[in-house]
Amino acid sequence: MDVVGEWVRARGGIAHSTTLRDAGYSKHRITTAVATGALLRVRRSWLATPDADAAVIAAAELGGRLTCVSAAGRRGLWIPHAPPSPHVAVPRTSSATATAGIHLHWAQGPVPLARTDPTDHPLNLLFHAARCLPRRDALAVWESAFRTGLVAPEVAARVRWRSVRAAELASLAGSLSDSGVETVFAALMRDSGVLLRQQVWVDGHPLDGLIGERLAVQIDGFAFHQARDRRRDLRADARLALRGFTVLRFDYAQVLFDDGYVRETVMLAIAQGLHRAR
């Protein structure tokens, strides 16, 4: 591929012409790259490689940038599911109109960005996720950003969010959940009035959650469990049972799509006093 195209590909597959010129590529060099097919012109000033992500190109065509779950997924954060359409942040002054297959975000995040920046800031994507997603899913995305180090919790706590929901999540989100599913479960318990302690170590192993003194909760994530992992989990459950714990184990699908069952099971266990030491 042309050297200009390689430069653009290394930066996500799309770049503004001003950024290319600032990097030392002449107008003639850029025009040649377009003429040879090494780059595609998007709108007037954006250029993309032929294999660039279609969602990124769609955002540039609208004069915006990917945000919310679209940007979160590209950064490796936990998201509840792949978005069926790109989530695109556009300026308030944009002439973009609602387009089939595109989810537009008009609100402005707390971090100002140059018009030539094709990537939304992590704080901005959290801002949009807070306003766009159901509360529990948004909380899971936020905690994923904290857990991976993309955003520091102490920094998020000091941001002027200009959004009640974002400010609420900044005060709630922590970094104790090992996965987004655990975050959703913790939020479910919080909403149900159940005091849940996370990542409590018992018998040399961490529990995803502990209710009271003896009701242990383990959450199986989305990833497939190999036979040896399943045997390890069963051994851990047996050790806990011999120490007087009741173990409730829920999987990804139950927590996300059957939370009524999960809540009812926990409540019945509490009603039977299984959270109390004998």
Label this structure with key terms.
278 residues; alpha+beta; Arc Repressor Mutant, subunit A; Endonuclease, Chain A; four-stranded mixed β-sheet; three-stranded antiparallel β-sheet; elongated
Account of the protein in words:
This protein is α+β, with helices and mostly antiparallel strands. It has three domains: 3-52, Arc Repressor Mutant, subunit A (Orthogonal Bundle); 60-172, no CATH class; 180-271, VSR Endonuclease (Endonuclease, Chain A), CATH 3.40.960. It has helices at 3-9, 17-22, 27-35, 54-61, 68-74, 122-132, 135-147, 153-156, 164-172, 180-191, 227-242, 252-257, 259-271; strands at 14-16, 40-42, 46-48, 65-66, 87-89, 103-105, 196-202, 205-211, 215-220, 246-251. The protein has a four-stranded mixed beta sheet, with helices on both faces. Strands 1-3-2 form a three-stranded antiparallel beta sheet, with helices on both faces. It has a three-stranded mixed beta sheet with strand order 4-5-6. Strand 9, helix 11 (227-242) and strand 10 (246-251) form a beta-alpha-beta unit. Helix 6 packs antiparallel against helix 7 (135-147). The chain starts with a helix and ends in a 7-residue tail after the last helix.
Low-confidence stretches: none
Q: Which structural class is indicated by helix and strand composition?
A: alpha+beta
Report, as a whole number of angstroms, the end-to-end distance. 70 Å
Please tally the β strands and state the result: 10
The share of residues in helices is 40-55%
N to C succession of SSEs = HEHHEEHEHEEHHHHHEEEHEHH
How does the major sheet shape up?
Answer: 4 strands, mixed
Q: Specify the overall morphology.
A: elongated
Strand order in space, largest sheet: 7-8-9-10
Mean pLDDT: 89
What is the count of distinct domains? 3
State the helix count: 13
The portion of residues forming beta strands comes to: 15-25%
Taking Cα atoms only, what radius of gyration do you get, to the nearest Å?
23 Å
